[in-house]
Structure formats: C-alpha cells, structure tokens
Amino acid sequence: MENLxxxxxxxxxxxxxxxxxxxxxxxxxxxxxxxxxxxxxxLKGAFIFxxxxxxxxxxxxxxxxxxxSSYGNETVSSGKISILFESTQDFKNKNVxxxxxxxxxxxxxxxxxxxxxKRGASEVKVASLLLKREKLKKNIVIDYIGFEIxxxxxxxxxxxxxxxxxxxxxxxxx
Length: 174
Ligand code: 5GP
Hints:
This protein is an alpha/beta fold. The chain has one domain (15-71, 83-152): Rossmann fold (3-Layer(aba) Sandwich), CATH 3.40.50.2020. It is 23% helix and 30% strand. The chain contains three helices and nine strands, in the order E-H-E-H-E-E-E-H-E-E-E-E. The protein has helices at 14-31, 47-56, 107-118; strands spanning 9-12, 37-43, 61-69, 82-86, 95-103, 123-131, 144-148, 154-155, 171-173. A six-stranded mixed beta sheet has the order 4-3-2-5-6-7, sandwiched between helices. It has a three-stranded antiparallel beta sheet with strand order 1-9-8. The longest helix is centred in the first third of the chain and has 18 residues, at 14-31. Residues 45, 70, 100-108, 153-155, 159-160 line the site of guanosine-5'-monophosphate (5GP). Guanosine-5'-monophosphate binds next to strand 5, helix 3 and strand 8.
C-alpha cells in the first residue's frame, strides 16, 4: 500500500482547528440565539467539522445530512449537483446552517442554497471550514469561514484523497 502520510505537509494543525471551531460556534450561537436551528452536514467531507462544531454550539440544533455529487463523471464542474442521499426534505420555515468542508468554485454551495430556497427554508447561512477565495466563481456569501487557504489540494479532518486520509486530525497537503 502506498505510504501517503510520508510526503504530507501540515497546513493547519489540530489545535488551530479546534480553537477556530470554538470561535465559529460562539458566533453561530450569538446569531441564532433563541431560534431553532437545523444543521445540514454536507457528506462526506464535512462530517468531522460538523461534529466538532455541533458539540460547541449551545443553541438547540437538529442535525441532518446530505450527500451531493458536484461533478458527476466530468472533471470540470457542470454547475449542477445531483443529490445522492438526504436525511430529510423538510426545510419549510426552518433556519438552516449548511456545513461544508471546503468551498472551492462555490458551485456546490450555490446549488444547495437554491435547493433550500426551493424547499422553503426561512433563513439559510453557510459555514465552511476552508475557503479557496481565489477559486470562487459564484458570488456567494459564506457566513462563517474557518480559514482562507491558497489553492492547494488539501486532505485530512474529513477531506479525502481518493477516499483516504479523511481521519487525519489536521489539514495537510502533498
Ligand atoms: P466547489 O463546488 O466549491 O467547487 O467544491 C466543493 C467540493 O469539492 C468540496 O465539498 C470537496 O468535496 C471538493 N474539494 C474542493 N477542493 C478540495 C480540496 O482541496 N481537497 C479535497 N479533498 N476536496 C476538495
């Protein structure tokens, strides 16, 4: 088996991530004070970020999951997502926080925002652990950003390389 860990460099270590996640949770608590909140975790990449974030949020939250494929079989984004799995379709009149691992072109989040609008959500905000701002193609607002990073392909803390390395506790790159 190829040893991928050997050539990895750390971009953001575990401590930095935990500190930032706590700060984001505090900001989310302030914004959603006295409101019920549905956290929509975008699988698979956001599962660790979402769990850590949810543990630190004191407001009353429901947690739902969605899995989307942004690019189908194409290497270049078609701008359309297909839904592979969703734990609920009930977003009517709900306050929703989409939780993503990374925003790159922004096409996935843009499509998810449209979907939630169609489903009748009353308020939708977006939290992303990472943002590659220079790659953004869509004019979207990311309300809670963990870290802005340069255009590296990153892995760890939920993000994979060909299905592997998701369980690393830090964000790294090759
Ligand atoms: P977008 O639609 O914003 O272009 O892409 C978002 C999705 O692309 C992310 O949820 C993630 O699955 C994938 N992605 C984008 N950049 C990276 C990266 O650097 N590393 C990994 N592992 N996935 C990425």
